[in-house]
Write a structure and sequence with these properties.
Strand content: under 5%
Largest sheet: none
Radius of gyration: 23 Å
Order of helices and strands: HHHHHHHHHHHHHHHHHHH
Number of strands: 0
Number of domains: 2
Distance between the termini: 52 Å
Helix content: over 70%
Mean pLDDT: 76
Low-confidence stretches: none
């Protein structure tokens, strides 16, 4: 049965991949190679301005504590999404749930899915270990990647069975754990990690996945429903205030997109948010790299949420016919969406940079201006190129990445005033988007 399920899932993945193979295996590698060669040439010519790769040395104790800190953050932010996947509250009537499959088989399939989901996170951790010069700790990310899904599944099921799926209570418990994290000697970390693994992995397998997730389904479903309603009211109020400063023509569409994002319509948002925050936090150990580069990469990752949002909305786009909209307003709403998502990132990078490396007032204000301009340019490119690539997220990523590299080079290396070149590019992208959307027959 386990082999049959894996074959079915692999065939579904292969079927999806067969439709996009030219993008992944031909166009994608070619365009990424162009970006790499262009970036390497620019890096070699202007390395003094953007900084060279410099190994940062941190103590092993600091690296280990930071590693556990990020693991705590991962558990916290992934708590409710994982609970929704563990408890069959929304999809209990699917064929897979109705089949007489043993709980151990379900657990193995779920475990493998978690391993694939966590792979980018721990690949980034391994690269970070290499960058920090802690090669003797390089085996830790691999070992943690193998066993952490079992710990996370067991902890989530145990917490919900004993308490409730409330992230506020979990946040209070994590604050206490983070405080203890800085008090416990690092020499005892391996003992505590082994103890946690031997406790939560068996609990998640024999009790949680087998019994608790079915016994507690009613309580969890009620909590998620109440939490969603309460969260929806708070989010609506916040988004109303945010949208008031936006142009009146795009305000309804922008508000709709933000609410859909907050309601987890685009699961990529939380992944992109986590990755962008990790990139921003890496400014602490940036070596000789310019902070504008970290801001550019973080903005690109978070603003790229607009691409899967646009793709997921494609089946429902004819509903915009009933609204008094034109094609340009649909395009502008995605442009402002990408800008608004990435708005806090340059200020976060600026704050971390000044905290770690204080600058005079004039230099700090100039750095803030460059960070804001880089963020504005890249988010505008990502949002403005939304219709490039025939509405395929992967192809749009590639096109936006190529233009973002050029925008970052012009602003960081040459002069911030070159951002004026962005507006003719946006005008061209707008014309292309109008042609493509009108061809779909979205609106008249």
């Amino acid at each position: 049965m386990f082999t049959t399920i894996l074959k079915a899932k692999s065939r579904a993945f292969t079927r999806e991949l067969s439709e996009e193979w030219p993008t992944y295996f031909i166009l994608g590698p070619v365009m990424f190679a162009v970006v790499f060669l262009l970036g390497r040439r620019v890096f070699n010519d202007f390395a003094f301005d953007i900084g060279r790769l410099k190994q940062v040395s941190l103590g092993e104790e600091t690296v280990v504590r930071l590693g556990f800190f990020f693991l705590f953050l991962k558990v916290y932010f992934n708590f409710l999404p994982l609970a929704k996947r563990l408890y069959p509250t929304e999809n209990r009537l699917t064929i897979e749930d109705l089949l007489p499959i043993d709980f151990s088989t379900r657990y193995k399939v779920f475990y493998i899915e978690q391993l694939l989901r966590d792979l980018p996170f721990f690949l980034f951790a391994a690269i970070l270990m290499r960058f920090l010069g802690s090669m003797d700790l390089i085996a830790w990310p691999f070992v943690i990647w193998l066993f952490f899904p079992g710990v996370e599944i067991g902890f989530t099921l145990t917490w919900i069975h004993v308490k409730s799926p409330d992230r506020k209570e979990l946040g209070g418990a994590f604050l206490v754990m983070l405080f203890m994290l800085w008090l416990i000697p690092v020499a005892q970390f391996s003992w505590w990690a082994d103890a946690v693994t031997f406790i939560f992995v068996p609990l998640g397998y024999y009790k949680g996945f087998k019994l608790w997730r079915y016994r507690d389904i009613g309580r969890v479903e009620k909590f998620l429903s109440d939490h969603s309603h309460e969260k929806r009211n708070k989010i609506t109020a916040i988004l109303e205030s945010l949208c008031k400063v936006m142009p009146k023509q795009v305000r309804p569409l922008l508000r709709r997109d933000l609410i859909l994002t907050a309601r987890n319509f685009v699961p990529h948002f939380w992944r992109n948010l986590g990755l962008s925050l990790l990139i921003v936090s890496a400014v602490v150990t940036r070596g000789s790299f310019a902070p504008e580069l970290f801001c550019a990469v973080a903005v690109f990752v978070l603003a790229s949420t607009v691409s899967p949002l646009f793709s997921l909305q494609r089946p429902y786009r004819p509903m915009d016919i009933v609204l008094p909209l034109n094609v340009a307003e649909i395009w502008r709403s995605k442009l402002f969406y990408a800008r608004l998502l990435s708005l806090p990132l340059p200020f976060m990078v600026w704050g971390i940079e000044l905290f770690m490396r204080p600058l005079p007032l004039e230099a700090s204000l100039y750095l803030l201006m460059k960070l804001v301009l880089v963020s504005f340019a890249i988010s505008s490119i990502v949002g403005g190129s939304i219709c490039e690539g025939d509405q395929r997220p992967v192809l749009q990523y590639i096109v936006a990445a190529m233009m973002s590299v050029l925008a970052a080079v012009f602003i960081i290396i040459f002069h911030p005033g070159l951002i004026l070149m962005l507006f003719p590019v946006l005008s061209h992208l707008k014309g292309s988007a109008i042609t493509r959307l009108a061809g779909e027959g979205v609106v008249s």
